[in-house]
Amino acid sequence: QVQLVESGGGLVQAGGSLRLSCAASGSIIMINGMGWHRQAPGKGRELVAVITSSGITTYDDSVKGRFTISRDNTKATLYLQMNSLKPEDSAVYYCNAGGTRYGRPFSAWGQGTQVTVSS
Questions:
Q1: What are phi and psi of 2, to 5 degrees?
Q2: In the list 2, 8, 45, 76, which could disulfide-bond 39, CB 3.0-4.6 Å?
Q3: What is the pLDDT of residue 29?
């Protein structure tokens, strides 16, 4: 079983910064793509940023230039550095990872971490 545990959410004023982390655990796993998604109240879940195993990144237009996704493959950990936060960034942030475990594909989600940006 692959588990993802997010941390780092909280309450911050507009213009502030937060750093989210997502630690993956599980035996014999090979992680390929990882990403961050978010869901605000009354809205659907949307993609924020993704990163491949080789470090290629893609961002939603709404966070380009403000958020940075990165990963430490040695620690199986994903990060999201969020700067210049806006009230509209408030949401529950989820990490996602896909890869293989014992040769079989998997896709796992974390439990989510709340980010609240006050104006």
A1: -100, 130
A2: 45
A3: 78
Output the pLDDT for position 28: 67
Dump pLDDT digits (tens) for 12-39.
Answer: 999 999 999 999 988 767 889 999 999 9
| Main-chain dihedrals φ then ψ at residue 114, nearest 5 degrees | -80, 130
Tokens of 72: 């430490």
Q: Which residues contact 71 (CB under 8 A, 6 or more apart)?
A: 34, 51, 55, 77, 78, 79
Phi, psi of 40 (to 5 degrees): -90, 160
> What token pair was written down for 98?
């896909």
Pairing of strands 29-39, 91-101: antiparallel
